[in-house]
Write a structure and sequence with these properties.
This protein is an alpha/beta fold and 257 residues long. The protein has a domain of 168 residues: Rossmann fold. 37% of the residues lie in helices and 12% in strands. The protein contains ten helices and six strands, in the order H-H-E-H-E-H-E-H-H-E-H-H-E-H-E-H. The longest helix has 12 residues. The radius of gyration is 22 Å and the shape is globular.
Length: 257
């Protein structure tokens, strides 16, 4: 912030520790904080080594079905290196953040602020439209709930022949709600939904639709690079997920305070 415009009221101490543990939080305008740090004399304080980050071991489906982790790892192998990627809100977002390999800066877009469902269905169409001269393909990782909220954008993608592949993680459940409430309270209401055939829905709108229930079908669908949108209706095991939930941890702050 430029000097002379700083105000203590514009800095939110509540942001400390929101995503990562904080050993020492310094609140204030950047120039003033750095100046105060440089003015401190003495020996540097030794810090304990931080945690070693590692991938979680991908759990397998007990029923032999595809998992969201399988889908994202297949995307790493099949999708072109210059692809755009987006993720809607849901259990699949944590998998994308953990496993998706992004080759170029700025090519993975997700709305982590309000975390509104449906945004990740609309964003890839805009990315593909903006890069239409290069014909770079955008891949949208979304859930069945998000696709039902904003799936009408598929008609726009068809009209403008946007190179977008919607990878619909179809578990017939609002799975983040299910697991989040179950983690927090030990029980949960029924968040299941009717099974929707998104492949047929895509075809009704003029897009290509693929029902995906195997690795071979998944690879074939991801390799469909036709000039226009493609929808992959990927049937996954809803019980397989990553351990830990930042959203649940945030909610627990309200119940524990």
């Amino acid at each position: 912030m430029p000097r002379g415009r700083s105000s203590r009221s514009t800095f939110e101490a509540s942001q400390f520790g929101k995503n990562y543990p904080v050993d020492l939080g310094l609140l204030g305008p950047l120039d003033e904080v750095i100046a105060a740090m440089l003015a401190v004399e003495g020996e540097p304080v030794a810090r304990a080594p931080g945690p070693v980050l590692a991938y979680q071991t991908p759990p397998a489906s007990a029923s032999g079905r595809l998992t969201t982790i399988d889908v994202v790892q297949a995307m790493n192998e099949v999708c072109p290196a210059n692809s755009y990627f987006t993720s809607d809100m849901g259990e699949h977002l944590s998998v994308a953040l953990h496993f998706l390999r992004v080759r170029e800066p700025g090519t993975f877009v997700t709305c982590l602020g309000f975390g509104s469902m449906g945004t990740g269905v609309c964003v890839p169409a805009g990315l593909a439209f903006g890069a239409r001269e290069d014909r770079r393909r955008a891949y949208a990782i979304c859930g069945d709930g998000g696709m039902l909220m904003a799936g009408g954008e598929l008609a726009t993608a068809v009209q403008w022949r946007m190179p977008v592949t919607f990878v619909v993680i179809n578990d017939s459940r609002l799975n983040m709600c299910h697991h989040g409430i179950l983690d927090q309270f030990g029980r949960t209401p029924d968040f299941s939904t009717q099974l929707v055939d998104f492949a047929r829905m895509a075809e009704a709108m003029g897009a290509a639709g693929h029902l995906v229930e195997s690795f071979d079908q998944l690879g074939a669908g991801l390799r469909d690079m036709r000039d226009g949108p493609v929808v992959l209706d990927v049937r996954v095991d809803p019980e397989v997920r990553l351990g830990g939930s930042q959203r649940v941890a945030a909610l627990k702050q309200f119940t524990e305070s």
